[in-house]
From TrEMBL:
Top-level enzyme category: oxidoreductase
Oxidoreductase as UniProt keyword: yes
Species whose genome carries this gene: plant metagenome
Family: Belongs to the short-chain dehydrogenases/reductases (SDR) family.
Domain annotation Ketoreductase: ranges: 7-186
Protein name stated in the entry: 3-oxoacyl-[acyl-carrier protein] reductase
GO molecular function, one term: 3-oxoacyl-[acyl-carrier-protein] reductase (NADPH) activity
Keyword Ribosomal protein in record: no
PROSITE patterns found in the cross-reference section: ADH_SHORT
Length: 259
C-alpha cells in the first residue's frame, strides 16, 4: 500500500508510544516525517531513529495547548521539510480517578490536550491543506470513547469528543480534498497503558478480547498508515477500531458457555 504522494507528515505526541510507531511506519512507506512532542529532546531522538532506519525526519517541540507553540512547530516543519499534507494527532494524556473525586483542573487539562489540542492542530494543518487541495488527518481516539469505563470520566469523554470532531472535520474539509478519520485503539501495550494497567486489569482485558491479547503500537501504526494512503481516499469521517475484536462483543468473554 503506497503512501499519499511524497507526503510530509507531522505527528504530535510522536516521540513515544503510538506516535513513535506511526513516525517509523510512515517513514517506511516513503513519507518525510516531523516528530512533534512536548519533549523536544525525545522528539529529536525519535527523528534520529527514523533517519538511522533510512528515512528523512525532523524533531520539533510542540505544546498542543498553546497557539503560538503549534504555529511555530508548523512553521519550522514547513521551512525545513515542506508543507504538511498528513497530520497524525497522537498527543494525549490518560488520568484515571473516580468520577465523584475527579479534580476539575485535571478534567480541564485532559480536555485541553486531548480535544482542544487535536482541534488546534487540525485547524492549523487544515488551512494549508485546503489551499493546496489535498490532505490527510488521522486523530487518535480510543475504544474508551465508545464504551465507558470506571475512572475514565475525562479520558473517555475526551475521546468521544475526538470522534465527533473527526466527523465535523470530514464534513467541512472534505470539499477541499482532505479526509479526516480516527483510529480507536483497543488495549495496547505502551508506556502510558502499562503505567495504568494492573496485572488484574490486563488479565481482564485479555479475557474480553477475542484475539486473546493486547495489541502493539506497530499494529496501530499500520492502520494509521492505511488512512493516510491513496487507497483510503474514499474513507472519510470514520472511526476505525483496532482492538482485536473487543468492541464486537456486548458481553464479557469469561469462558465457554455450556448451555
Amino acid at each position: 500500500m503506497q503512501a499519499a504522494r511524497q507526503s510530509i507528515a507531522l505527528i504530535t505526541g510522536g516521540a513515544s508510544g503510538l506516535g513513535r510507531a506511526a513516525a517509523l511506519e510512515l517513514s517506511r512507506r516513503g513519507m518525510r516525517v516531523a516528530v512533534a512532542d512536548l519533549r523536544e529532546d525525545a522528539a529529536r531522538a525519535c527523528a534520529d531513529e527514523v533517519v538511522l532506519a533510512g528515512g528523512q525526519a525532523l524533531g520539533v517541540a510542540i505544546d498542543v495547548t498553546d497557539d503560538a507553540s503549534v504555529d511555530a512547530a508548523f512553521r519550522r516543519v514547513e521551512a525545513e521539510l515542506g508543507p504538511v499534507d498528513v497530520l497524525v494527532n497522537s498527543a494525549g494524556i490518560l488520568n484515571v480517578a473516580p468520577l465523584l473525586d475527579y479534580p476539575l483542573d485535571t478534567w480541564e487539562r485532559v480536555m485541553a490536550i486531548n480535544v482542544t489540542g487535536t482541534f488546534r492542530c487540525a485547524q492549523r494543518a487544515g488551512r494549508g491543506m485546503a489551499e493546496r487541495g489535498y490532505g490527510r488527518i488521522v486523530n487518535l481516539a480510543s475504544i474508551s470513547g465508545v464504551r465507558a469505563g470506571i475512572g475514565r470520566v475525562a479520558y473517555g469523554t475526551s475521546k468521544a469528543a475526538v470522534m465527533g470532531l473527526t466527523r465535523q472535520l470530514a464534513m467541512e474539509l472534505g470539499p477541499h480534498g482532505i479526509t479526516a478519520n480516527a483510529i480507536a485503539p483497543g488495549p495496547v501495550v505502551t508506556a502510558m497503558t502499562e503505567s495504568s494497567y494492573t496485572p488484574e486489569t490486563r488479565a481482564a482485558f485479555e479475557a474480553m478480547i477475542p484475539a486473546g491479547r493486547l495489541g502493539t503500537p506497530e499494529e496501530i501504526a499500520e492502520a494509521i498508515a492505511f488512512l493516510t494512503s491513496e487507497g483510503a481516499a474514499y474513507v472519510n469521517g470514520q472511526t476505525l477500531a483496532v482492538d482485536g475484536g473487543y468492541l464486537a462483543g456486548g458481553v464479557a468473554r469469561t469462558g465457554t458457555v455450556s448451555r
